[in-house]
Amino acid sequence: MSTEYQILSAFRTWRDVARERYSADSLPEDEALIAAAENPELLKTGGQFPELLVWAKPLRRVVGYARVGTTDIIEDGSDPLLFQPDLSVEVPKAEPSEKTAEPEAPVEALVETPPAESKPTPRRHSRHREDNPAATAAKDILKATESGSRRGGKRRAKADNSAQEDKNLRSWAAFEFARLDAFARPEPLAGAGLRVVPDQQGGLSLDWELPELPQKKARLFRIVSDEQTFELDPDFGEHRAVTVGTKWVDSAPLTTAYRMYQVWMYEGNSEHDAVQSQPVLIGEKSYIHPISGIELSAAGSEVKGQWESAEHTHRVAVFAVPKNERLTLARRNEIATDTANLQGFRFQPQHRGREYKFVAQRFVTINGLELASAPSEEVTINVPAEVMAVPIQVVEKDDGFDTTFKVTWQPPHSGEVRIYRTATAPDPDLQFNEIEVDQLEGFGLARRDWANDLEGEKSSCTVTWPDDWYSIFITPVNVVGNQAQVGKTHSRVRVGAITNATLHERVNSQLLTFGWSEEAHEVTAVFGETGTGQHIGPTPETPGTSLVSIHQEAYQDEGGMRFPLPGPGDIALFASRVYEGHQIWGEPVVLHYRGVRQFSYQLQVIGGRLFLAIFSDRDQPASQQLDQFTLRIHRSRLPLEPEDGDEVLTRMIDGTTNEPDEAQFSPGISAGSLRPVDQQVVKYWEIDPQILSYPASSLMRLFIRQPADSMAPVNALIDPDPAQLRLNTWNRG
Question: Which Pfam families does this UniProt record tie to the protein (predicted)?
Answer without folding.
Answer: Fn3_SaeA_2nd, Fn3_SaeA_3rd, Fn3_SaeA_4th, Fn3_SaeA_5th
